[in-house]
Amino acid sequence: MNTHLKELIELAKNDQAIDSYNPELEAIDKKIARVQKKLTTAQNEFNKLELSIADNEEKIIGFDTQLKLLNQQLIDNTKKGKIITTEKEMKALSVEEELAKEKMTYANEEIDRLQNINNTKKEIIDEVEEKLKTLQEQFNTITEEATIKKSEIEKSKGELFVKREELSRLLEQKVLAFYEKIRIWAGNSAVVPVKKQACYGCYMKLNDKTYSEVIKGDEICNCPHCGRIIYIEPITPEA
To answer: What is the DSSP letter of 187?
Structure first.
């Protein structure tokens, strides 16, 4: 087999080994992203509940203030009733008192309603808080594991990159440039074997002339259909 072709095959396999780590890295990032999404959703739910409870508390304070004012109004009206002399004034005062009592009833009902809502939301917020704690612990564990795993992968990739540099130096620049050009569009299938007289990049059958040249292995051959670099894998005793 052509020496450059041997070096090219070795370089291609090394590049495949480097890129084989990408799906693993993507899977790690996706796993982290999934937990992060759950954590963010739970945190948003927690924040929303807190804001809603605070908003209701503010409304309760407003109704409490209103009750105090209405109660004071009733006290003042009682004092006025003692000095009123005409029936017209008495009726006006009576209407005023009825209206004040209606407002007080409504305010008390709203306070009860809002307090019940808040009690329910406080129970939910406790559950969400516990969920947040669990998710945060899960996120920390996964992130820690991911950091260790990524470190191991980067170390392995670093060793492969060193080897790639060594292999690249052995190749003629013209051959290397040719390979890199194909690799731009073919990726890890830039150099593929031929099996059953077919290119294992595009799976198209080779004509007899091309197949014969590939078998000889004297020159670097390209698939006439897709342009990938093709070769015949050496037959081992095990095979």
So the answer is: G
Q: 128: burial class by Cβ within 10 Å (0-12, 13-18, 19+)? A: buried
Give tens-digit pLDDT for 35-48.
999 999 999 999 99
* Same structural domain, 165 and 182: no
Residue with tokens 């003692």: 82
**Diameter of the chain by CA atoms?**
127
The verdict on 166 and 194 lying in the same domain is: no
Per residue in 173-232, pLDDT (tens digit) is 999 999 999 999 999 999 999 999 999 999 999 999 999 999 988 889 999 999 999 999
Structural domain span for residue 203: 174-231
CA distance 50 to 41: 14
Give CA–CA dist 62/59, Å, rounded.
Answer: 5
